[in-house]
Design a protein that fits this description.
Blueprint: H1 2-5, H2 18-28, E1 32-35, H3 44-54, E2 59-64, H4 69-78, E3 82-85, H5 90-101, E4 106-107, H6 109-120, H7 139-149, H8 154-161, H9 165-179, H10 184-193
Parallel strand pairs: 1-2, 2-3, 3-4
Length: 205
């Protein structure tokens, strides 16, 4: 009833839900759809996505009760060019329709403020996980490699780690195979090159 009274607007159809909206757009080819979000069968976000994908000449302005982020951003990502809440008056609706028809965004002042707030919120950076050892080495194999780089023999490594010499040999054979190493000299160079051990005389960082 409100839309029918607004100047310059011709209401060509009314849909009961999202499925009906997609069907009517294909049939009537309107310039603009005023789209609700919470509807049975097909919600407004999915209906908007389908309309914009199949009928690029039809613009979508969301007119809904909901202004929360979970409603706003999916609707805009689906292709809505305008977003109004249902407390918008006739002038706001006409302005939003004119804006989207001219290629602009038809957003209410409240929605513009929310977008500005969202994009000026401090970026939360997550702590970076520590780098994984190279070549799939396990933490224990890296530990053994460090002790090799310190010049410890197999029995000395066994005593340091409180394991048997046979276990140390197994770790060394495994890390040699994974890293493609032939001998302890190559292993020491490998440990230095990958930052797993510090050459003598260099500070530990």
């Amino acid at each position: 009833m409100l839309l029918g009274l607004l100047p310059g607007i011709d209401v060509v159809g009314s849909a009961a839900d999202g499925e009906d909206a997609v069907r009517l757009v294909a049939q009537l080819a309107p310039d603009v759809v005023l789209m609700d979000l919470r509807m049975p069968r097909c919600d407004g976000v999915e209906a908007t996505r389908r309309i914009r994908a199949e009928h690029s000449g039809t613009q979508v302005v969301v007119l809904t009760t909901y202004a929360d982020d979970d409603s706003l951003f999916p609707a805009l990502q689906a292709g809505a060019r305008g977003y109004l809440t249902k407390d918008a008056d006739g002038d706001e609706i006409v302005r939003a329709i004119d804006d989207v028809l001219s290629g602009d965004a038809g957003l209410s002042p409240k929605i513009q403020r929310r977008l500005l707030e969202r994009f000026t919120e401090p970026v939360r950076t997550l702590p970076q996980p520590p780098d994984a050892p190279p070549d799939g080495l396990t933490a224990r194999e890296v530990e053994v490699l460090r002790l090799v780089a310190e010049g410890q023999s197999n029995p000395e490594i066994a005593r340091t780690l409180h394991v048997s010499t046979a276990t140390v040999k197994t770790h060394i054979n495994n890390l040699f195979a994974k890293a493609g190493l032939r001998d302890r000299a190559q292993a020491i160079h490998y440990a230095y090159r990958h930052g797993l051990a510090q050459p003598p005389g260099q500070p530990i960082t």
